[in-house]
Amino acid sequence: MTDITIYHNPRCGTSRNTLALIRNTGVEPRVIHYLETPPSRAELLALIAAIGTPVRDVMRAKEAIYKELDLDNPKWSDDELTDYMLAHPILINRPIVVTPLGTRLCRPSEAVLEILPQRQLGAFTKEDGEAVIDAQGRRV
Q1: DSSP assignment, residue 52?
Q2: Which fold has domain 5-133?
Q3: pLDDT, tens digit, for every residue of 60-84?
Q4: What are the sequence ranges of the domains in the chain?
Q5: pTM value?
Q6: Which one is catalytic: 1, 6, 8, 12?
Q7: Mean pLDDT of 76-95
């Protein structure tokens, strides 16, 4: 059983790059496709607390539904914002990664490097062609 979990959206390039960086350590993480299997309220609140940022910072403001629901409005409480994320999981920003070293919203994908217990095993280049890790497993 792995001790790394990623809340993943396979349609998201940042999420795919983050998953690939985890796998570049030789570890196969537990992958939760959170759009299909959303976290419970308790799980979502625990993730947000572990990340250590305000609820609003874990929301995906670029989604059309964010604008449709006027979620940028400061009138919404953290509980209400959480309710919206639970009702519309697309509003949960991604990817969120949990390891023994911490929990991060990995935007950019390289943020995952701060919490991976194992080192990178080889070179890694993001989907857009940006080199992140060299052949010796060091950050570029």
Answers
A1: T
A2: Glutaredoxin (3.40.30)
A3: 999 999 999 999 999 999 999 999 9
A4: 5-133
A5: 0.95
A6: 12
A7: 98
